[in-house]
Design a protein that fits this description.
By secondary structure, the protein is of the alpha/beta class. Helix content is 27%, strand content 24%. The protein has helices spanning 16-27, 41-46, 72-78, 81-84, 97-110, 159-163, 173-176, 194-203, 223-231, 329-351, and strands at 6-12, 33-35, 114-116, 120-124, 130-134, 139-147, 151-153, 169-170, 186-190, 209-213, 235-238, 241-249, 253-261, 268-271, 274-277, 281-283, 315-317. Strand 4 (120-124) and strand 5 form a beta hairpin. The two termini are 26 Å apart.
């Protein structure tokens, strides 16, 4: 380890938080090294491939600076040809998730971020400099670390669900609910907690009807949230039901869902243009193995208000790995900026 370069800052994760942290760290002359994740079957299965959850979405209508329009010419000049080869044809209606993430990646590289396409599988934050082991077997050392590994949405695990992801199946109503596919058409929300009611209430602004599908006969949501769903004229709760199959075709995407009963009643098929999962998220923190303090939901615990400090001095967290509330690309990017500034100032303090 004696001849190993000691990095100023290593960034783990390649979603909006990770790339924004890299942009700010690179512009601050910290020469950041970013681990964007490995490209393998396990990451594909878990939804943890490079570029984060946003790369798994299609239209992005709510990221500032990207109104509807044809970006094809800009993408040709902004992205290298070899990276454009990974992208689907541009839809000419504004930026897509994969395009936005490629643009963030290229911006970070432009300012000098070095990128390694591997996972960090083990960390030791008890030593200085910090020690990190990658999936290629290499070990790296760094004075500061920014963890931006995100959180993945929980899905039901149905083959039909997988088939229609981004074609009517979504795990984020705020991200996708206003899309033309769902406007003035019925949709379904799966879940029974506060998040499910929030998603259903939000979707009711756009959809003609919202079915709230819950496996029990009583919502897990707080009383005030449950009452909001029960009293809403556009929300119908389907009790004691679980999704058996997502129905649809390649041309139209989701057209309905078949529901099984948990109390022995006959199957029920409803016509919907979309199915929104609200059954929780899993933060990508397993690799930490107890090195950082986590919340009771498994997210990294931030230890100081309005800062990205974690329980270990010199380790910072940004994005959905430390946020179980907002979970938006723009808030993740903002916290990535904060983490880079926090790391820069902390490192400066160490030098002085």
């Amino acid at each position: 380890m004696a001849d190993k370069q000691i990095e100023k800052v290593i960034i783990i994760g390649s979603g909006p938080a990770g790339w924004t942290a890299a942009i700010y760290a690179a512009r601050a002359a910290l020469n950041p090294l970013l681990f964007e994740g490995a490209i393998n079957e396990e990451n594909a299965r878990n939804g943890t491939l490079p570029l984060g959850q946003l790369a798994l979405t299609t239209e992005v209508e709510n990221f500032p600076g990207f109104p509807p329009g044809d970006l094809s010419g800009y993408l040709e000049t902004a992205l290298p040809e070899e990276r454009r080869a990974y992208l689907p044809p541009h839809n000419k209606h504004g930026v897509t998730g994969p395009e936005l993430m490629e643009l963030m990646r290229q911006q970070a590289i432009h300012f000098g971020t070095r990128v390694i396409t591997e996972d960090i599988v083990d960390v030791d934050f008890s030593v200085r400099p910090f020690r990190l082991k990658a999936s290629n077997g290499e070990t790296y050392e760094s004075r500061a670390v920014i963890v931006a590994t995100g959180a993945r949405a929980n899905y039901l695990g149905l083959p039909s669900e997988e088939r229609f992801k981004n074609k009517g199946v979504s795990a984020c109503a705020v991200c996708d609910g206003a899309l033309p596919r769902f406007r003035n058409r019925p949709v379904a929300v799966i879940g029974g907690g506060d998040s499910a009611v929030e998603e259903a209430t939000y979707l009711a602004h756009w959809a003609s009807k919202v079915y709230l599908v819950h496996r029990r006969d009583q919502l897990r949501a707080s009383k005030i949230m449950a009452q909001r769903a029960l009293s809403h004229p556009k929300i119908e709760i389907l009790w004691n039901r679980v999704v058996d199959e997502v129905l649809g075709d390649d041309e139209n995407g989701v057209t309905g869902i078949r529901l099984k009963s948990t109390v022995g009643e006959p199957d029920l098929t409803i016509e919907v243009s979309g199915m929104f999962l609200a059954i929780g998220h899993t933060p990508n923190t397993a690799f930490l193995k107890g090195q950082l303090e986590l919340t009771d939901k498994g997210y990294i615990k931030l230890t100081k208000p309005f800062r990205t400090y974690t329980s270990v001095e010199g380790v910072f967290a940004a994005g959905d790995v430390a946020d179980d509330y907002y979970r938006q690309a723009v808030t993740a990017a903002a916290s990535g900026c904060m983490a880079a500034l926090d790391a820069e100032r902390w490192l400066a303090g160490q030098e002085s």
